[in-house]
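COMPLEX REQUEST
Ligand: adenosine-5'-triphosphate
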Amino acid sequence: MIEFKDVIKEYPNGFRAVDNLNLTVRDGEICVLIGPSGCGKTTALRMVNRLIDVTRGEILINGQPNDEFEPEVLRRQIGYAIQQIGLLPHMTIRDNVAIVPRLLDWDEERVRQRVDLLLDMVGIDPGIQGDKYPRQLSGGQQQRVGVARALGADPPIMLMDEPFGAVDPITRAILQEEFLQIQQEVGKTIIFVTHDIDEAIYMGDRIALLRAGRLVQYDTPDDLLALPRDDFVREFVGTDRSLKRLHLISVRDSMMNNVPCCDDDATLQEVTACLDRHHSDSAFVVDAGNGKLLGWVERPALVEYGSLSEAMHHAPAASIAVPEDATAREALSVLLSHSFDLTPVIDAEGVLTGGVSIQRLQDLVEEPGIHAAMQRERGR
Ligand SMILES: Nc1ncnc2c1ncn2[C@@H]1O[C@H](COP(=O)(O)OP(=O)(O)OP(=O)(O)O)[C@@H](O)[C@H]1O
Ligand SMILES: [Mg+2]
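STATUS: Structure written out below.
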């Protein structure tokens, strides 16, 4: 756990880069520090490992003030990945990753094993890339090595200052996803600096929004989007915050199981009864044998053609349905592109398992804290 208690950083010219910061980062969580350029993110981060001294207040690491540790000791226990990657150009990739373990006097065999494991973990082949120099790697590869190096001695705490800042958006998205997968395994306590709100929402368990050295709001991504405290937050998270929230909600959590649906061998009477029962003018059609989604049928066509087989629209399930692990945002896209009022949901085999309604999506974006409530529900 990392705790900032009334932390102030004041420069000799009287400028307060960090102004009375109170913030608790829980074990195993990613806390994202975000805010406009110059708001004090890097300063706050560097005070944790004492690269910058606190003017007033204190920072506790697992309950112990960080000024009770020798700075060197502290820094070896806290991984640090910086904005410009910071790999040492004259050292090979292996040597870069080995820096902290060697500082800790690990024997060379243990260092070698650790370096290979870390490079593997971040998707760099130690056999192929390990003996190269940083400039021989792409930007994305260098960022991966930067992350591996920060994880070097398996520190419980990681400080990451725009660690994916130096790459294109596509590589960045890949690195974010990879890193979250690694974090699921290693469960570090992380302070992660970014000025990209989408990255913050994607990466953060909690987001701390700073402005001019002050903490404006500290909340889960969902609560930040749903309940922005003031106009500054509202503006910062963007006007499309409702849509952003849908990225955080899975189809599994927003679908209903009972949707209008009939077998492809159903009679006209059976289909009509199904539509009536659901007060609906359309129903999904599934294979009577295996339940796989085949398409849909609408009442007017049914009346016109008089049989399901002639009236139904055939469509590949993948083009009209979403899988259960998709996000509510994807369900909305499908809904809008087909002008359905219900997006069908399928399992891995293509079997219809339910649907997401437009009404449900609207409720979700209006209901504050729904995501947090769902998480709590699941944790129970
Ligand atoms: N030695 C110094 N004396 C006075 N002010 C300083 C000093 N060092 C940094 N600052 C100021 O402290 C403020 C916070 O800087 P910091 O690097 O923490 O910002 P940041 O939020 O990380 O910004 P960015 O997003 O651009 O990286 C800035 O306004 C900076 O100009
Ligand atoms: Mg910075």
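REMARKS: The chain is about 40% helix and 25% strand. The two ends are 23 Å apart (CA to CA).
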